[in-house]
From TrEMBL, chain A:
It comes from Loxostege sticticalis (Beet webworm moth). Its main location: endoplasmic reticulum. It holds the Pfam family Gal_mutarotas_2. This is Glucosidase II subunit alpha. Keywords: Endoplasmic reticulum, Glycoprotein, Glycosidase, Hydrolase, Signal.
From TrEMBL, chain B:
It comes from Loxostege sticticalis. Residues 303-354 are annotated as: Disordered. The keyword Calcium applies. PANTHER family: GLUCOSIDASE 2 SUBUNIT BETA, N-LINKED OLIGOSACCHARIDE PROCESSING. Residues 249-277 form the EF-hand domain. It holds the Pfam family PRKCSH_1. Transmembrane segments: none annotated. InterPro entries: EF-hand-dom_pair, EF_Hand_1_Ca_BS, EF_hand_dom, Gtb1-like, LDL_receptor-like_sf, Man6P_isomerase_rcpt-bd_dom_sf, MRH_dom, PRKCSH. Residues 410-510 form the MRH domain. Residues 156-228, 360-394 form a coiled coil. The keyword Calcium applies. Keywords: Calcium, Coiled coil, Disulfide bond, Endoplasmic reticulum, Signal. This is Glucosidase 2 subunit beta. The lineage of its organism: Eukaryota, Metazoa, Ecdysozoa, Arthropoda, Hexapoda.
Amino acid sequence: MKTLGLLLVGLLAISGSFGVDKNNFKSCDQSGFCKRLRAFKPEKSHYIVDFENVMIQDNLLFADVNAVDLESESKTVLFRYVLKISALVDSTFRVEMEEVNPLYPRFATMLALKDTPIADQLKQVSKKDGQLVVANSKGLKVVITADPLKIEFLDKEGEVAVVLNEQSQMLVEPLVQRAKKEEGGDTVEVEEEGQWGENFKSHHDSKPRGNEAISLDVSFPDADQVYGIPEHTDGLALSTTTSGEPYRLYNLDVFEYELDSRMAIYGSIPVLYAHGSKRTVGVFWHNSAETWVDVVNYADGTVVSSLVNLVTGGHKRRVTSRFMSESGLLDTFVMLGDTPADVFRQYTRLTGAAPLPPKFSLAYHQCRWNYVDEADVRGVDENFDLHDIPADVLWLDIEYTDRKKYFTWDAQKFPHPSEMVANLTAKGRKLVVIIDPHIKREAGYFVHEDATDRGYYVKDKDGKDYEGWCWPGSSSYLDFLNPAVSKYYSERFRFENFPGTSKDVHIWNDMNEPSVFNGPEITMPKDCRHYREHEDGAEGLHTFWEHRHIHNEYGLFQIRATHQGMLDRSDGKYRPFILTRSAFSGTQRYAAVWTGDNAAEWGFLAASVPMCLSLALAGLSFCGSDVGGFFKYPEPELMTRWYQAGAYQPFFRAHSHIETKRREPWLYEPATTALLRDANRRRYALLDFWYTLFYEHARDGLPVMRPLWQEYPKEQPTYTIDDTYLLGNQLLVRPVVSAGVSSVQVYLPGAESGTVWYDVDSYQPHKANGYFSQEVNIAKIPVYQRGGTIVPRKERVRRSSALMAHDPYTLVVALDANNTAQGTIYIDDGETYEYKKNKFIYAKITYTSEEIAYSFINEKASFPTKSWVERIVIAGIKTPPKAARLQQAGASVALQMTLHKGNDVLVVRKPGAAMAQPWTISFTY
Amino acid sequence: MVYSTWIKQLQSFAFILSSFVIFVQSDVPRPRGVSLSKASLYSPTKDFTCFDGTVTIPFSYVNDDYCDCFDGSDEPGTSACLNGVFHCTNAGHRPQNIPSSRVNDGVCDCCDGTDEYTEPNACSNTCEELGKEARAEAQRLAELHKAGSHLKVELIEKGNQKRSEMAEQLSQLEKDKAEAEKIKAEKEALKNELEAKENEALKVYREAEEQERQKKAEQERVDVLKESTEHFERYDSNNDGMLTVDEIKVVNVFDKNKDGEVDEEEIQYFFGENESVDKDIFMATTWPLLKPLLMMEQGMFKPAQDDEEVDPEAEAEDPSRDDTEDLGTDDENLDVDLPQEDTHDQELEQEHTRTYDDETQKLVDEATEARRQLTDAERTVREIESNIRTIKDNLEKDYGLHQEFATLDGQCFEYDDKEYVYKLCLFQKVTQKSKNGGGEVGLGNWGEWAGDDNKYSVMKYTNGVGCWNGPNRMTTVNVHCGLETKLLSVTEPYRCEYKIDLSTPAACDESNSGQQHDSHDEL
């Protein structure tokens, strides 16, 4: 929603310029462990595996690892570790390394994994010459070299796909006691620079456990590019970091964040994919602490060529990466693909896919900071109807509350929330209200009193309730790590505890990095204390986790509690919708995300595509940007292009800053309003297509919005394309994201397989052949349907998606070179969990020149939809049939057809087939 | 587009909701959703041609729940066409045209419920009830307008009277102005004559003065030289006659931004591109830059400029204190004339304090008196001109068709809400004052009439005080008929855009039968 804008007004006014104040955020050099670890580049790793002590059982391998003093001749053992390698199903391995008997247990990230990963099997293949070879049930091999430790993962051809510690940068800093020395009869603690405390600006971090960083280098032979580790504002393909800052993963509320940057912003998802024409693989760095990632792509011109030759023997394709985290366990998952789809699936198998969202959430959302009162909400709602623009959701930002006390309403401005909601739901619309994690410290505010009395707040380094500054002024932060706090929070969402809400009121969890206006880097101090389950008698550092350990999953803890609360409030009947700003691995199981506080500038519109693509690869398909831009005012052309782009991105919400001019679609001149209406209508016409994509995502975990190389992995030019994407494998979208253009270059992949792409406006076919120039007037949105697919549409766009539930379908059949096409469609009630009880239709639609058949994929399931087929459009038809007959439920009906000769389009007029039952239309020639 | 159409026999499938339905509500049979006026365009005895003329279809395709016409004209009674229109008769109330997308969507849009015909019991017919209410409301409005119109007659009378008074005043003022200008010319001639004499007499004194001034300037130059040399030598710690970067780095005063170190930017500021400066360069370029800083350190000098920059920013941090932005503006207005008068007074004072011989003094006194008289005469002319301007402006203002708003010009009305007191001074300005103190914030100055149908139903007050990061404040005043002139409500629907509802007899119209909100034709 917003950052601490108002606090920074003064600064902004002086400089008069827009942009992030980098002084507020650390560079690697200012982050103690990053500086320390980045400089750690030993020639040889000091970890040596003791092959005498290896145990292989079921899917596990345990081996002792010694950290030796390479300087000493006898190779004195400094520290002892245990290495654990687990084979998991779906070509995935897990590698963990931990100190033997550490001084304190290290923090194990809690919420990223969906369940305990499913075990495969691991067996020894050979052990000789200092190498141990093991293999999983599919025969995928792992080669472990003892001295120094190196782990190579081989692909199914037996070629090395992923290497750990090849660059000797594996490191698990041993936990140590603070050294003491005698000085003049007193014992004093030895100060070692930064080990027991660090400063940033005016903030001091006390670091009571000392240094506990971890690091690991991961090499990808044969890779052309690496992707992932969102959220950043640079391109989808990651760039070499040697001459600059590493990519940073640390959830931060960055005011006026900048583009083309590796700075950390709101979300942190430590999964990295490497892709080349040979294979696609990935690593998931299972860690919730502050993390920095270095990348070196040997094909990158900036990498010194001698280095390339040295490492790759002249072979240019290779990317290496290195993860560095401040604390936590060294725990990483290696996913061996070997296609892009395989590896994306492997990641969501570990961390979960987004569950099927309520259908309305895929429609259009209208937000602003703030719709000021009930009359305003009513006015906005009515104006959508007056201007015949569909909309499903109105949003209320922080001003609806009683002075920023969440779970309350401003009694003057919102005296009748239930009536306001009823007025919306009468037309099938919903309301979303904001609930942030900071709690106003005000006597008499029930949440504050409860949290104070019961000790539910995060504690400061001395164990007192931590107080920070946020929207309400002095605020404290609920400690969701405590199950009692999460339960308490969930209960706040019960209808009786949050009067005015109903099943049609959904939730926006913003500011959950967490944002703390007066904290270091605008977030919570790292030495704040969180709840930790511990045994009686435990004391000191054993009784709490520090914020540094859990930081990147704080927001995930909040949305998990919100999600549970929303389930419980309707006794598990209705699907919740939650929007979150911070994100971590696993966030997708509960919430949608958006790209935070952008600005009404063309650059931010353009950035929305690679940013959401990157998040989608990391499991977060349900992504969008503030349409129109949060800061500043979008002029008509930018607004038009943003609606057109937003209409084809998963989360479609317009939003704006409180200080900016209002920009609801009807506030522009009529010609622009008409274009915005057209963009919205296009979204609504395709809602069932979107809904089907999200259903399939819930099943297979694949990105809804996907890069071209996911579907065309061998096609090298696609590897760096991130202004164009696919929705499913059906539609190719190339939004116009620059001003005043009359044409755009569109890359159409699939030339080798003879793919044909049909312009969705004209059904004009384009044979795939790389780039072609598409003319774009202001109304044009370049979208193409792939030949060989069938896309369902609903052409009767109404005020809201709920009102379209029973409307008939238009099926758009785009033929491939063999005159065939397939598609799927998912239908259910759109809002409940009844689909889990087989109350749905998941059907496939298959076209051949003989017939078009609609049949249920899951035959046990059914849904009594009243929808029917009003039109079938067949594009690319060479030999039109003379007659068509519909067969359904034992009846047979002759159908009419219209041929549009100009572009080989055949329209079957009003087949009238019911979608509740299978049907077939047969053609005769 | 060209379609080649060939038609196979059509059999309607059992569950298809509607095929062709003749909907009989009045005497003329017409398809569902067609208004009486368009009924003749749908003739069951012949093929139907879309209104846009592009396609002709069998009449059985009309209202068959499939869109054949690009203009939607073949489906007046179904939701099949995205751009279609459904007409509901709403017997007992006003007829209505709704977009086709509202047909059979589960929401009752027509009061007769005809838009939801697939669920016959979903909507009850509320037309009678609504019609009754609407008629009662129309009646009430008509009566209000009637009663208000009586009051309006008075306003019109007074308005016309006011205008003719103003016209009279104007012609009187034009006469006064001519007279005053004559006096001014006389006084000017007299002043010129006496000043010439005075100048002659003062010449000798002025020369003496000039000499003194030069002497003083010379002394000042020597002082500067001395002071800057002192400082130069103090900073030139190795006494080599050159001041270097290293030498100034340790001197606090060069730390212009007071961040504890003399950085590159500051060195550049004082030294330009030079690595070091000798005494001459120091004096010529560095010293003038350094001197104000030294004075500032000694508390002798405060840069006013900085204060002005800092204040509004600090205030803008607290959005609840919007009103403070206005203070600056008010101050500026107040200040406009002051400095001039100040300097003028000082000059006079100077002259008065000096002593002359008696004869000279007499000439000076006479000249002073002549100047004073001329000033008075000029002021009189200005005042008359200003009055003329005001009246001309007012005469040019649009006070309605019959001058019914004329007497309201300048009348102010207040409205209290929880946090603010709003004040509307008609044809002048709108202001807002916080109840927690602070000054008035201008929400707009009289702009223009801006009603759509009736120009005189909406007033715009524009160009108020600017909002941070946003537009200037503005106010829209909706003018309603009422028996009393007063503010009914003030809201801020959009940030910095205010809305006032004003009632006044001036807006009443006897011919209004209360039907101005009749049309529900949204398309």
